[in-house]
């Protein structure tokens, strides 16, 4: 029986991925910018705000005219005008004067603070009483207080969040340069695989799970699932499908056929593809040992184990970081995100010499996050659906005891309870 050819540790695989270059850049409109990764530094081309701006409804004043003001001894000021929203101030403020300004309105020349309307009283005659003093600068934003012109807003490699897109809008950017996102083909192999809507599923056949799980994970990783296809266990057909997928996808995921069984073809397919370089054949983890990583020119091919739990775990641990890397996010950052600390509820046994990725379900009790292992074969999709993530027991550690605080690597971002029903034992 053939052996795994290039068994690597999980860290070695992540190091290989870190060396992948991001895809080329493109320009996207702000509407499509959240989640994308900047390909260049972005600097502010202007001050925000670009004029002195009130942040409360009230009266623009000279602070010194309100010093010592109180309920019993209010300061009397003459109202000499009003600033209208969206318009520059029409008047300059002189000593002993006040000008009404709405929240967000332009402060008039001569004013250095704003008294909130609650601390004033209109006594008629165009006069107000101010019952609380303000200090210079109170309730006013100076130009550049929010964002200073020429300041570095975000470095290249920054993944834009909703609020970051707001910053770009505030400095007048309508579009932004980002790294392109990879298009990912998902091919599932196996004579036994049939579509979920097959009218009958004879004994020996199985409904396709991985295509749907992997395509959803591709989307969760910010990439674009492209062609999905089920290929029989036939070398010619598999090679043809890979060739086709590689023409217009940067990444091809192949699930099944990565192991060392007589009918497992991924390595043989790679031998037929011009310029294919096998980087990984076997990872020292469980589940997920029969994982393959290859480069074909600038394209990447992942061979994932066919077992649904193995495929999903390998995706989370390695494929996802690789898709993020192509979008310009470093592996370090991508593996740091989406983890939770939790206290183990049971012993986690593990074998020395290989890293175990053990599915766990999270719950909360008295403000503490608890992790309950979900045991079961990697052939069982239900074990994944019950799990929120996995705990890694590294190759040099022989298990963890109940009560240990561990890091849980979380699946997906949406956490839902498993189908109502009884827990499997
Ligand atoms: N004698 C040995 N047998 C196996 C070993 C081993 O070391 N020695 N490794 C086991 C492990 S671990 C895994 S994982 C699997 C990996 O197998 P392959 O990656 O070659 O995948 P297949 O044999 O094609 O499929 C495995 C299993 O998964 C089912 N499958 C495949 N694709 C799908 C899909 N799209 N949807 C749902 N289920 C799928 C397939 O029917 C098989 O049952 O090998 C073990 N064997
Ligand atoms: O290593 Mo396999 O991927 O256990 O199921």
UniProtKB/TrEMBL annotation:
GO biological-process terms attached to the record: Mo-molybdopterin cofactor biosynthetic process
Protein's pathway: Cofactor biosynthesis; molybdopterin biosynthesis
Organism superkingdom: Bacteria
GO cellular component, as recorded: cytoplasm
Catalytic reaction annotation: adenylyl-molybdopterin + molybdate = Mo-molybdopterin + AMP + H(+)
Signal peptide: none
PROSITE patterns (UniProt xref): MOCF_BIOSYNTHESIS_2
Required co-factors: Mg(2+)
Enzyme class: transferase
GO molecular function: metal ion binding; molybdopterin molybdotransferase activity
SMART domains linked to this entry: MoCF_biosynth
E.C. designation(s): 2.10.1.1
Record CDD domains: MoeA (cd00887)
Job description of the protein: Catalyzes the insertion of molybdate into adenylated molybdopterin with the concomitant release of AMP.
NCBIfam families assigned: Glp_gephyrin, molyb_syn
Name of the protein: Molybdopterin molybdenumtransferase
Species annotation: Desulfosoma caldarium
Species lineage: Bacteria, Pseudomonadati, Thermodesulfobacteriota, Syntrophobacteria, Syntrophobacterales
């Amino acid at each position: 029986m053939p052996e795994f050819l290039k068994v690597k540790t999980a860290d070695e695989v992540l190091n290989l991925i870190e060396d992948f270059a991001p895809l080329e850049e493109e320009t996207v409109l702000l509407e499509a910018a959240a989640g994308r990764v900047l390909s260049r530094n972005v600097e502010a081309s202007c001050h925000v705000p670009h004029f002195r701006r009130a942040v409360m409804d009230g009266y623009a004043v000279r602070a010194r005219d309100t010093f010592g003001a109180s309920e019993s001894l209010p300061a009397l000021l003459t109202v000499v005008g009003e600033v209208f929203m969206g318009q520059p101030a029409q008047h300059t403020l002189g000593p002993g004067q006040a000008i009404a300004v709405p929240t967000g309105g332009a402060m008039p020349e001569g004013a250095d603070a704003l008294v909130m309307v609650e601390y004033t009283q209109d006594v008629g005659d165009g006069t107000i009483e101010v019952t609380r003093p303000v200090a210079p600068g109170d309730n006013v934003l100076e130009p550049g207080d929010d964002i200073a012109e020429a300041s570095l807003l975000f470095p290249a490699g920054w993944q834009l969040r909703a609020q970051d897109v707001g910053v770009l809008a505030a400095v007048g950017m309508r579009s932004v340069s980002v790294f392109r996102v990879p298009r990912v083909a998902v091919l599932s192999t196996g004579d036994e695989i049939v579509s979920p809507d097959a009218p009958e599923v004879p004994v020996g056949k199985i409904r396709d799970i991985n295509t749907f799980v992997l395509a959803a994970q591709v989307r969760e990783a910010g990439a674009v699932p492209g062609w999905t296809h089920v290929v029989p266990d036939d070398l010619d057909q598999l090679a043809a499908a890979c060739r086709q997928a590689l023409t217009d996808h940067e990444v091809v995921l192949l699930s099944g056929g990565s192991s060392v069984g007589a009918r497992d073809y991924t390595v043989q397919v790679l031998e037929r593809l011009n310029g294919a370089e096998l980087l990984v054949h076997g990872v020292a983890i469980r589940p997920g040992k029969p994982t393959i990583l290859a480069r074909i020119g600038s394209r990447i091919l992942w061979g994932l184990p066919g077992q649904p739990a193995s495929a999903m775990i390998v995706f989370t641990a390695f494929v996802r970081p690789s898709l993020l890397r192509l979008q310009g996010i470093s592996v370090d950052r991508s593996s740091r995100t989406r983890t939770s600390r939790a206290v183990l509820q049971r012993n986690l046994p593990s074998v020395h010499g290989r890293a175990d990725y053990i599915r766990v379900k999270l719950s909360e009790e008295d403000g503490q996050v608890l992790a309950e292992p979900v045991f079961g074969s990697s052939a069982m999709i239900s074990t994944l659906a019950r799990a929120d993530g996995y705990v890694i027991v590294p190759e040099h550690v022989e298990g963890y005891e109940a009560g240990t605080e561990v890091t849980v690597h979380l699946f997906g971002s949406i956490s839902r309870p498993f189908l109502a029903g009884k827990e499997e034992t």
